Give the backbone structure.
Amino acid sequence: MMITVLVFLPLLMAAIAGLGGRVIGHNAAKALTTGGLFVSAALAWVTFVGFWLNGAEATTVPVLDWIESGRLSVAWALKVDTLTAVMLVVVTSVSALVHLYSWGYMAEDPSQSRFFAYLSLFTFAMLMLVTADNLVQMFFGWEGVGLASYLLIGFWYTKPSANAAAIKAFVVNRVGDFGFSLGIFATFMVFGTVSIDAILAAVPQHSGQTFSFLGGQVDVMTCLCLLLFVGACGKSAQLGLHTWLPDAMEGPTPVSALIHAATMVTAGVFMVCRLSPMFEASPTAQAVVCVLGACTALFAATVGMVQNDIKRVIAYSTCSQLGYMFFAAGSGAYGAAMFHLFTHAFFKALLFLGAGSVIHAMHHEQDMRFYGGLRRHIPITFWMMTIGTLALTGFFFTAGYYSKDAILEAAAASHTVHGAFAFAIGAVVAALTSFYSWRLVFLTFFGKPRWAGSEHIQHAAHDDHGHRHDNAHEHAGGHAQHDDGTAGYHPHESPISMLIPLFVLGGGALFAGLIWHENFVGAEEGASFWRGSLAFNEHLMHAMHEVPAWVRWTPSIAFFVGLLSAYYYYIRHPDLPAWWSRELNGLYQFLLRKWYFDELYNAIFVKPALWFGRMFWTRGDQQTIDRFGPNGAADVVVAGAGLARRFQSGYVYSYALVMLVGLAAAAAWMMR
Amino acid sequence: MPILSIMILAPVVAALVVATLPGGGQERAGRARVVALATTLAEFGAGIWLWLNFDQSSAALQFPEQLQLFAPYFSWSLGIDGIALMLIELSVFLMPLCVLASWEAVQKRVPEYMAAFLLMESLMIGTFAARDIFLFYLFFEGGLIPMFLIIGIWGGARRIYASYKFFLYTLLGSVLMLVAMLWMVGQAGSSDIGDLSRHDFAKDAQFWLFLAFFASFAVKMPMWPVHTWLPDAHVEAPTAGSMILAGVLLKLGGYGFIRFSLPMFPDASAQLIWLVFALSMVAVVYTSLVALVQHDMKKLIAYSSVAHMAFVTGGLFALNTQGIEGAMVMMLSHGLVSGALFLCVGVIYDRLHTREIGRYGGLADTMPKYALVLLFFTMASVGLPATSGFVAEFLVLLGLYQTSTWATFVLTTGIILGAGYMLWLYARVAYGKAAGEDTRAMPDLSAREIAILAPIIIATLWMGIYPKSFQQPMKPAIAAVVARLEGRELATVPTDMTLSPALPAIESAARANTAHAEGHH
């Protein structure tokens, strides 16, 4: 019962706020959705504590029959076990805080109730995803979060870039869903069911078998896992299908924190963990997951080093951290993957919301080249962002320290080639992570103010009445010229509704690892914590604790390498980065343009699709089919008997009727 | 009570009444509208009565009627199974909405217009209820005549060309089918559809008969490459005409396949799946790409219809329970969703009198209710779970996968391309900024328009969340068709039936189905 309320309350509130927002007003809509989410979050924590401390039993609550056909039987049902409980806590907590945060962030937006309705709708879809007891319901949640993501990325729909980003997100995710769908079809053919429990129970009897796929004989488990993994890649923005995530930053910043950092993008990791016994049955699939995750981590980190938009840096960081989660899963350490998912939700949501606070203070200026010295103006945001950065870069005893260490140690301890590869890449990426994260902090909060040249700030400073995107509390218009790079504008700290979520998430970023690491990845406690909800490899967890000291120290060394080089380049010698980018312009452009993925995809998918569409339409339909078909026939008719006029007269219809009746009657008469 | 006869004849009577109404001008038009609405609502009521009194556990014909006309080969023989029932429900559900949609949009020769629609309703119900193959033929082909009139008289600028094209295509196919029917009746000695579906025609004869019927049904579907009449017909037809065309007339081809081709020529069907799959695969990719580059809203939706209909053919010729049930749900779902999409186009066409996508924009600001409804149907069209479109696509592809992974692979790309063209359409219409002052000045949905769209939204959600209500009546009839196909030798096409561990799909599916049917007895 509790789980039903937990899941459906956000849907109910979304419907009320979305359909009735104009009637009940913004404040009522905001209060209902936020209140609903806090109730759900409270219930989620009760559920989680039940699994964490009290050894609650996994349950499945049936809701309604859904699709039945032949031997296929799919029902709406809510499944809760430890894995789900972890996700419930992550989803509802971050969502509740983001709802609260949006009171301040979206305070001047004319469509607030629509925004809050979308947020709650998203939360509902995400909850359906994590409570799914079968693949089809998971797919429902999967596409549902895709819809909400589409709506929220395109929330400011008068901006062409936001619309383009929204469509891109949906369509690229559909490419992933294409794989996911085929995976479900193939799974059903092999297992005769889509129930996750039944599938996982039957994995042993099908592993090692082959079936034919697109004309070739392939290993059943490898094929199924890879198809499903394509879906995971789409949702979790892994290399190849990642291109939508940075563009998704067009959405309002609270959305980026909730959907594109803490919850939706981790759905792929959740799926792999949920189906981990299947992946365990296919070493090939595991290797693919591991290697692709490592490559994504590296790719995104390199791109993140040179971006100037504060949100894009964090977006690439998310992409990169998701790569960590996947290579943990590919190494067989599903507990470590979930652990990083859990801690990452806290510190990445914190970083995004902190960035939102900076953007809010800077009149929607997102370019870090126009920041600088902000720690004196917005000190609370500064300290919270610093905590988030410490956790992300894995400073001692913060949340990220435990989870990232666990991942790297698991990769090293897995004693496979791909594990060793992932460990090496992961260590490098840890240093890069530390570099770009501290670069962000130094560019934003240290040095001298540089925002005099920012259009957004100038706009705000000279516009006495403010404008649509203008959320500041006071204007500094009409001041004389200032030479300190501030143009007379002094940023202000965000309102309390935006700071409370930062404090709460900051607490999580500092202490989540300390509190729960034994449960998630401990060799003894882990098994009793997960209780079969994912494939928990105790042997690997033991091996993790026996890796050589240099492996254990690697992440910490990486932390300092990154921090010190960021300090050197952005505090001590702020001119050096520009010099390097000129010296190595080719490399710099390559990274700045994100390895040219967008250009490549545009050239090989988008443009040809439009070209073929036009070609089929004009050359195919008009100049071939119509020309030799009906138009050709018409020409013959016109030339032959001048019947065309009769077609226009309308008599043809009576003729046709007479003809049909006559034919049928004659036929019947003939056969008497 | 001969309920089916009453349902077929009542609209004819109403059409006569409407056509001969006294009075003049506006008054006459007003009366015609009221009579048409009352009749279609009564038909809808009768449809609900049928549904409630239908025995959902039986594949047998229900509400049978028999009246010899030209014994022994042509009789007024009616009766419905679950498949026919659900298609009749779709027709009677859409009809009152069509009348309402034309309430203000049509001002020219209103009584004749309403009469044409009533006649069409009669012929559609007749098509689905006919048990005699010649009676079916009459209704099947006759149903096009009111449609020619609707396009030819109340259509747009190029209406003559469109109706001519429509006529030419369909006539060509139907002549072949009629010849095949004559031969079949001569062979089997009966014109009863039930008898014919139990008659085992020789395998080589089946091949030619299949192709003759295929010519007719493929045009009606429409399948690539005989689809080019559809975009023109849709573009020129008035809104309600498009609704019926997409909603019901496009279902005649699919109905023909499941009623005739599959049970009467099971061996040929199994042997020729490669033909159907190939055409369906081409259709999905080809028409989706064409839809992507359209500037005319109605053309875009028309091309998307062709792609959706390819899912129907793919599902039917998967020759298993999931595929055929999915194809049936797809027909119902597409009837609702594409009907509603044409209605949505009609709503803004009535205001701005253009179908040019570039002339719109920013409707989310100026017409928020409309934008929400259009978003809903856009999502239903791309098959978002919890809408009817998902259940349909999912079952079709799930069934098809068991027969051919290649066909499934190609058809599934439709979900990517479909998202592309529909979302792009939506973005250009609803998002961004209004193209002009006249666009910005368009009023939001009226109460009448909401009253038309709301029932379709409810039905679409219902079918998406609890499709059982709609699937249950059809299951026994579909099980009978699958049983008829059981054990037929499938074509050795480049598809992959050699599954280890599974068996050839057609057998296992049929077996599951027999088990299902047994469960009912």
Q: What stands out?
A: Residues 160-191 of chain A form the longest helix (32 residues). Chain A touches chain B through 80 residues (CB under 8 Å). Strands of chain A lie at 59-69, 72-80, 210-213, 216-219. Chain A is about 70% helix and 5% strand.
